[in-house]
Amino acid sequence: MPKEETIEKQYDLVIIGAGPGGYHSAVRAAQYGAKVALIEKNKLGGTCLNRGCIPTKALLASAHFIEKLQRAEEFGVELKGYTTDFSKVVERKNKIVNELGTGIANLQKSWKNDVYIGHGKILGGNTEEGFKVLIKGETNEEIILGKRVILATGSTPALIPNFNVDHERILTSDDILNPNFKTIPKRLLIIGAGVIGCEFADIFATFGSEVTLLEYLPSPIATEEPIIIKHLQKKFDSMGLKIFTSQNVLSVENTGSGIKATTCSASVPRDEIENAETSVYEADLCLVSIGRNKVSNDLGLEEIGIGTRRGAIEVDPGTLETSVNGIYAIGDVIGGIMLAHVASYEGDIAVANALSSLGIYKNHSKRANYRVVPSTIFTSPNIGSVGLKINQAKNLGIDVLVGQFSYSSLGKAKCMGEEGLLIILADKHTTQIIGASCIGESAPELIAEITLAMQNGLSIEDITATIHSHPTLSEMVLEAAEAIVGRSIHKKGRPITPRLRDILMEQIPYGIDYESE
Ligand code: FAD
Ligand code: NAI
User: Does residue 16 have its Cβ closer than 6 Å to ligand 1?
Assistant: First the structure.
């Protein structure tokens, strides 16, 4: 432990963890004029850049490129055949990750933020000069002082002892995204058909693996709209991908030449599992993708009285301040919505509150609001959503109107050979947009328009009154919004009933509900 008198550096803000939560916060705080230290024990960019969003999307870009090649004939292109080289795909992925990592380091330099490589830990409570933060580097230790601290230490793959993750045959997403992982297994078994499971299933199936997914719940990506899930399942079926749902995976073993997973039905009560009928699934490799654990250990939390719940650091949900004044926590480590853009958003909130309380960014305290959070699953086709799903809206007692429009009815999508659908939800009484779900090419971009609409409390009329360029996929948004009120131009008409006539005559401008669609 370094001596107290060796404490030299004092900062307005010390941030522990340099993922999209931490590094974003560091830049934002510097923009407001704060003196900032950013501590990272591994690589700048965190999970998102090094083991998450970016490397998967680089692999998916190659997979989607192959998928287009496979459809060459449909577009009038005769290919004399092609081969794939997964090691080159991985090299491309590594290069993208490295370049972006250098970019983050340069950004910090340009804002004159000090970056420390080492494990950060808070030592004791607030003193007049601030919080002491210990940095344990590979060869040395150092203590710095921060008037305010943000914890942004993220998450790691969740593990279950019976799954025997050995990082050789039984892997996590960290292993598969390791710069040296260059294997396309003949047979891949994926445990957990959530976001990670489905994205990797898409990648490896496209590269020729026989992929099987085992999922505990009755459906993959269970939180999405059922109609969207159905569409994805149809696509996965066409790729030969197998999904077994309602499977309780009891154990996974490395057999030396492969892996073996044993399951029973998820409906079997815990105390009857021992005698339950089991099924066995064999493959060459296994990916375990069953959620994420929060990284809240060895941060000095217990010593200063910051609580955790199932690993998640407890914060005030509005200010993101912990129970210790002056210490904030953001991103995956607080649980909630574990997405990169949410971590960055929370960084903005925590920075504003921390610097406001220091008088650096006066009177700018903010409260987090999660009403409008877009998310994407980057399968092919992409899935995007924002706001409420139909059942959520109904459960909240909202009188919900639904407009649905298909890619197959849109000129631009037809030219591109794309299929899918967009659903927009509105509140019948206010006509405000309350949610949307999309599966299809550029789904996240379409959802971005609806996200902006929702963020600003816009209504169906606001979208339908907006001119959308033709021919573009953005017309999906216009048509789906028009479909809510029975006025989509490119959707099949229905005989005019008195009720529909009323709607068209604008006597009850927004009256079609989902059931009658
Ligand atoms: P992290 O990114 O986990 O960063 C935390 C950092 O803190 C790490 O670098 C860690 O080394 C460091 N750290 C931890 N403890 C200490 C300590 N004591 N001292 C110093 N440093 C420490 N989200 C999306 O929005 N879109 C996607 O497409 C997407 N794809 C994903 C794909 C995969 C395979 C995975 C696993 C995740 C994906 N995510 C995606 C989720 C996204 O990566 C996370 O939500 C995001 O990275 C969380 O950011 P964070 O800053 O909270 O934490
Ligand atoms: P997840 O929560 O999305 O999915 C895990 C799945 O595993 C669930 O469907 C769950 O029912 C299932 N499961 C859990 N235990 C199981 C068991 N014992 N046997 C069988 N199935 C089991 O978590 P995932 O996919 O690991 O992703 C972690 C986080 O990373 C998510 O919160 C997600 O938001 C984020 N992420 C985001 C991406 C994106 O935005 N595109 C991409 C990848 C990850």
Answer: yes
For residue 83, count CB atoms less than 10 angstroms from its CB and return exposed for 0-12, middle for 13-18, buried for 19 or more.
Answer: exposed
Answer yes or no: is pLDDT of 140 > 80: yes
Distance CA 390, CA 444 (A): 19
Mean pLDDT, rounded, for 449-471 = 97
Whether 381-511 and 161-290 are alike in CATH topology: the answer is no
* Residue 305, Cβ density class (10 Å: 0-12 exposed, 13-18 middle, ≥19 buried): exposed
Pocket test for ligand 2, best of 51, 164, 196 (most atoms within 8 A of CB): 196
- Tell me, in angstroms, the distance from the centre of ligand 2 to residue 332's CA: 13
pLDDT of 507: 39
Q: How many other C-beta atoms are found inside a 10 Å radius of the C-beta of residue 141?
A: 13
Helix (H, G, I), strand (E, B) or coil at 136: strand
Q: Specify the CATH superfamily of domain 4-156+294-356.
A: FAD/NAD(P)-binding domain (3.50.50.60)
**Class of the CATH domain delimited by 161-290:** alpha beta
- CB proximity list for 94: less than 8 A, separation 6 or greater: 179
Reported pTM: 0.95
Which DSSP string do the residues of 376-438 spell out, in sequence order?
Answer: EE-SSS-EEEEE--HHHHHHTT--EEEEEEEGGG-HHHHHHT---EEEEEEETTT-BEEEEEE
311-336 tens-digit pLDDT:
999 999 999 999 999 999 999 999 99
The full set of domain ranges for the chain reads 4-156+294-356, 161-290, 381-511
Q: What is the mean pLDDT of the chain?
A: 94
Token pair in block for residue 229: 């899930």
Ligand 2 near 59 CB (within 6 A): no
* CB distance 52 to ligand 1 below 6 Å: yes
Instruction: Identify which of 44, 51, 151 has the alpha carbon closest to the alpha carbon of residue 108.
Output: 44
| Token pair of 258 as six digits | 């492969």
* pLDDT tier, 509 (very low <50, low <70, confident <90, very high otherwise): very low
Residue 497 has a pLDDT of: 67
| Per-residue pLDDT at 120 exceeds 50 | yes
Q: Got the DSSP string for 336-359?
A: SS--HHHHHHHHHHHHHHHHHHHT
User: Cα separation of 155 and 63, whole Å?
Assistant: 27
- The pLDDT assigned to 126 comes to 82
- 194: pLDDT strictly greater than 60: yes
Ligand 2 centroid, distance to 191 Cα (angstroms): 9
Residues near 512 by beta carbon (within 8 Å), at least 6 away in sequence: 401, 484, 485, 486, 500, 503
Does 3.30.1360.10 match the CATH number of domain 381-511? no
Concerning whether 167 is annotated as a catalytic residue, the answer is: no
What's the Cα-to-Cα distance from 276 to each of 250, 269, 272, 280, rounded to whole Å?
11, 9, 6, 13
Question: Residue 6 phi/psi, 5° resolution?
Answer: -85, 0
376 lines ligand 2 (CB under 6 A): yes
Is the peptide bond between 218 and the residue preceding it cis, with omega within 30 degrees of 0?
no
Q: Any idea which ligand is nearest the CA of 151?
A: 1
pLDDT at 488 over 50: yes
